[in-house]
From TrEMBL:
Entry protein name: Oxidoreductase
Similarity annotation: Belongs to the short-chain dehydrogenases/reductases (SDR) family.
Keyword Endoplasmic reticulum among record annotations: no
One cellular component (GO) term of this entry: membrane
SUPFAM superfamilies: NAD(P)-binding Rossmann-fold domains (SSF51735)
Protease is among the record's keywords: no
Keywords: Oxidoreductase
GO MF annotation list: oxidoreductase activity
Origin: domain of life: Bacteria
C-alpha cells in the first residue's frame, strides 16, 4: 500500500463502474484525488466511500471551455498535478453508420477522442511541473465490426493519438500509457451486450492494480 502516496491524480469518468473501482484503489494507495464526472450527486456518493475528501469537479467533457477552466482552476490551487487517468467513455448507439444522427456522431467523438486531446493540451503544463508526470487512458482494441462505427472510430483515433503523443514525450518527465483492461462488468458493457450474463464478466476491481502501476512514480 502507499504506492501513490501524496500524488495528485485527476480521474475522468470517475463515477462509472471502472472509475469508482479505480478511485477507491487509488485512495487506498494514498493518492490525492481530483475526480471528474457529469453528476454532482454521483461524485458526492463516491467521495463518501473514500478515506479522505477528494476534489470533486462536476464537468461534462463535451464542454470544451469547461476543460480549460478546470485546468486553470487546478493550476491556481495546486500548481501541478502528478497524473491524468482518462476513463470517461460513451458507447453512443450501435446503429448503421449512416443512420447515426450528426449530433450523436459528434457526441461519441467528442467524449472519447476530442475531449482527451483538449485534456492533454490543458493539463500538460501542470504535468510537466511534476517530478514524474503520468498519463494513462483506458481503451480497447476496436474491430471493424458492423454497427460499432462511431465507438470504434473514436477508440481507434484515441489509440493512434496517444501512441503518437507517447513518442513525442519520450524525452520529457511525462510517461504516457494506454491500458486495455478487457471486458468488465460496467454499465457501458451492459448497454452494448444487454443479453450477456454479468456474473461471467470480470469485476472492475480485478484490474485496478494495472492502473496503479501506470500512475506510480
Amino acid at each position: 500500500m502507499g504506492r501513490l502516496k501524496g500524488r495528485k491524480i485527476i480521474i475522468t469518468g470517475a463515477t462509472g463502474g471502472l472509475g469508482q473501482s479505480v478511485a477507491k484503489k487509488f485512495d487506498a494507495e494514498g493518492a490525492e484525488l481530483i475526480l471528474i464526472g457529469r453528476k454532482t450527486k454521483s461524485l458526492e456518493d463516491l467521495d463518501d466511500c473514500l478515506s479522505k475528501n477528494a476534489l470533486l469537479i462536476p464537468l461534462d467533457l463535451k464542454n470544451t471551455e469547461g476543460i480549460y477552466e478546470m485546468a486553470a482552476s487546478i493550476g491556481k490551487r495546486f500548481g501541478y498535478i502528478d497524473g491524468l487517468l482518462g476513463l470517461a467513455a460513451t458507447l453512443g448507439s450501435l446503429t448503421p453508420l449512416t443512420h447515426l444522427t450528426p449530433a450523436l456522431w459528434q457526441q461519441v467523438l467528442q467524449t472519447n477522442l476530442h475531449a482527451n486531446w483538449h485534456l492533454l493540451r490543458a493539463l500538460e503544463p501542470l504535468l510537466l511541473k511534476s517530478t514524474g508526470g503520468r498519463i494513462c487512458f483506458a481503451t480497447d482494441l476496436p474491430e471493424e465490426t458492423a454497427y460499432w462505427g462511431a465507438y470504434a472510430t473514436s477508440k481507434s483515433g484515441l489509440n493512434t493519438m496517444i501512441k503518437a503523443y507517447s513518442k513525442e514525450m519520450e524525452h520529457s518527465k511525462i510517461k504516457v500509457n494506454l491500458i486495455n483492461p478487457g471486458p468488465l462488468r460496467t454499465n457501458l458493457r451492459a448497454q452494448a451486450f444487454p443479453g450477456e450474463d454479468p456474473s461471467k464478466i470480470a469485476s472492475p476491481d480485478t484490474v485496478t492494480d494495472m492502473f496503479v502501476e501506470a500512475m506510480a512514480s
